[in-house]
Amino acid sequence: MPASYLWLIPLLPFAGFLINGTVGRKLPRTLVTAVALLFTAIPAALVAWLWATMKATGAPEVINVVSGPWIAITGLQVDFALTVDHLTLIMLGVVTGVGFLIHIYSAGYMAHEEGYWRFFAYLNLFMFFMLILVLAESFLLLFVGWEGVGLASYLLIGFYFKKDSAANAGKKAFIVNRIGDFGFLLAIFLIVANFGSLSFEHVFNAISANPDWHGGILTAIALLLVVGAAGKSAQIPLYVWLPDAMEGPTPVSALIHAATMVTAGIYMVARCHTLFDRSPYALGVVAIIGATTAIFAACIGMVQHDIKRVLAYSTVSQLGYMFLACGVGAYAAGIFHLLTHAFFKALLFLAAGSVIHALSGEQDMRKMGGLRKRIPVTFWTMTMGVFAIAGIYPLAGFFSKDEILFRTFTSDNPLGKLLWFVGLVTAGMTAFYMFRLWFKTFFGESRFEEHGHDAHHDSHAHGVHESPAIMTVPLVVLAILSVIGGWVGIPAALGGSNEIEHFLAPVFESGNAAEVATTAVASHGLELTLAAVSLLTATIGFFIAYAFYYKKPGTASTFAKSAPALYRLVENKFYIDEIYSAVIVTPLLMFTRIILGGLIDGVVVNGSGKAAGVTTKGLSTLTRRIQSGNIRSYAGWLALGAAAVLVVMIFGRSLWMH
Amino acid sequence: MTTAVPIAWYLILAAVLFSIGVAAFLIKRNIITIFMSIELMLNAVNLTFVAFSHMWHQVSGQIFVFFVMVVAAAEAAVGLAIIIAIFRTRQTLNVDQVNLMKL
User: Fold this and answer.
1) Is A376 on the interface with B (CB under 8 A)?
2) CA-CA distance, A554 to A559, in Å (whole number)?
3) pLDDT tens digit sequence for A171-210
């Protein structure tokens, strides 16, 4: 593919956004769909072409396209520049591929919704910014994409803006992300101050060229980047927005809040690996944040009742895994998990959407059950997703998760073994809550109300039914990907060649000697043992879920009653939202209302305004008398003025000179 | 020019005429009189122009006087027309009663 076509990849979805966003309201739905799908299909095809070009032997490992200066001031120049390396290629594949599938699905899922054109316009806008994000060659352009996907996320979470909860969730996502973005912005400032450039190539080359640079300012930059990444990728302590983001339409949850946007933080950390490698402290923080988030979110996910919320907490937990991988320097493993997670989590969300669609909007798992026979395609595809995420051999999740656990175990992080154990427990919990969801939704007796065909309260409420082909086809494609997606990374111990790691090697191998060393030392036997242990853990998770929710469906509630305080604590998500509200939001609001609103705005701003007004009015009551309308008084003033000028001219000089 | 009149005398005369013009302008209520006082001020200025022109042997001062006279003539034409118009509408020439623009 000619490098100049690279600009088309992000700009085509933007064109789709412009068309649907401006005249979409007047276009028929088929045309809106056609525009939205076409302008995401072409980039997907372009990415495939690009992939073929770059896979060809002798092809450059990095393609840079610079189209001209953007900001040029003394000491800093930022260009409009895109770059493609193998890491970008994987991200591009995920974004355009999964994005296109979800666009197709959305055409079916959103078919009856109001604001159809608006939905697709936002979705295309998201694609544009996400592609800018992954293609950017500078921190600044990355930041543009970063903010842009935040905007699209905000718009789509609040898509049902007539619902208060949706509008509030949108605001929450936006504001929590602002905190992270603030850190990111500070990191950018530090980079400008210390490197005088924002280009990845320039900054990372400068770091590589100075092997003695360690810690210090690099740690500061890395930690600030972590703040940004934690915001976007929903890590502790900024994860709170993601579960609420489920207020958006389900395809949005699948695309933005599972497969692509939330992985931007992981992408950013991986992109900046040269920087992170020089700061073991920052890497340690990343690993600890990741592991903590993984187990914490998995805990909450085990007791949620809303099917989408279970998946949301699962996403947070899996993102924690990816963070953990990056934190132990196994960036390739993190990106591998990002890839497989994009497949199976998008699948799970879409399948959950299909379940919700079948039940005419019911999201509470307590009111599901026994759906296996009623919606077979959804059931089978979701089964693939559940097995994949639970880490059952040989599905996608097994390989990527196993790779992360293995790398954590063998890392030189002093907490490596502990982190591995946390990851292992999380894997068991993941299997448990996913199978819990599976059993509660598809097995047992049905607990939902049959709507029948009498549509009284809902215009398109009809009996439980399988989704149309436009929704099931993407499900099937994603299910296949969830099964085979992991095969690109079968480790050598299991007879594979871990292709993805070789594929990513040109990106990550520079200055990453530590990782290579551990890989060499670790024996295949250890890797096999660890794989067996994690598989065993997943199986245990399965059997607990089986016992609790299939064999004797009442067991879980009896169990919950035996420790009511603990159960209530977890069910209420450890009261984190309430704590944030009490510790941060309320004091901030008080400060804003009393100090900023009352004192600064009320007294200082309003006061000075009023004072200016009153003074002017007072002066004017005096001076308005001059404007008497009496022509002779005007003349008199004029004469007086002239006389005064004369006096000054004649006497003033001699008066002031001495 | 056996006994040249000192320049100061011309200036004093001009100043006196100008002041009379100003005073009349301020005191009088009749528009015609006010108009005349303006002419008086203009001519006081003209007098200084001519005096200085003569003193420095420069003709430009006299040219200025012609300009002033032309302007004064134009002003008289327009001004008198306005005065007639005012008189026709208000039946008075008292400026204190021509106060439509007053607050």
Assistant:
1) no
2) 9
3) 999 999 999 999 999 999 999 999 989 999 999 999 988 8
